[in-house]
Amino acid sequence: MEKFNTDGIVIKTSVTGESDLIVFVLTRSNGVIRAFAKGARGMKSKLHAGSALFAYCGFSFSEKNGVYHVAEAEVRNIFFALRGDMAKLALAQYFCEILLKTLPDGQTDEEYLRLMLNALYALCENKKEILQVKAVFELRLASLSGYAPPVHACAGCGKFRTDEMYFNCLTGDLFCGACGRGEDAPRVPFAVVAAMRHIIFSPFENVFSFHLSPDLLPVLTRLTETYLQNCFQMKFRLADFFWTAAD
Ligand SMILES: [Zn+2]
Description:
Distance between the termini: 49 Å
Order of helices and strands: EEEEEHHHEEEHHH
Bound molecules: zinc ion
Radius of gyration: 20 Å
């Protein structure tokens, strides 16, 4: 039996046995680990708090023949503020769905964990608009996964900026006001393009730090949501659940 330590966040749980859980943990060093948490449903279990959804912990796992067990879970944050807000909770669950469906097996880039943690901190700290957090998560995750859309310039003529531009949610191509006419792509104000560029190109620690007027945030995140679904050619059903909860 091998033991190892890493930190990570629980992104899915399912019930098994009389009092056990199976937890899916997005870890810093080992991608998503599926592990048994023995007895974790018991209120007195030392694994109880650390195997709940959104628990961010220092984990100790044991592994034998490819089967993982949670040996210890030292809780660092449970993102308690999510529980009191339907829209935030729905959004966090949507993030989990995206991670579970899109992360390839063996993907160990720790940026995914950073993105998830920073998104949840941003939601809980209340400093960013919820739709801004959503857009950042969607577009930065697409970029991390190799689908950064080429929005640095117009795909037709190379122009950097026009007041209105066009973004093709299927290809990720951007067009200036002139080249975009006749393209089958929604028209977007330049401020939205600037926000997309920020999300894709800024250093990680600044990725949430941009200002877009509240009336344009829904425009931005409708685009990033559609683009992400097109990248992976799948529907994330919790997106609809989020929009209902946010209504
Ligand atoms: Zn152009």
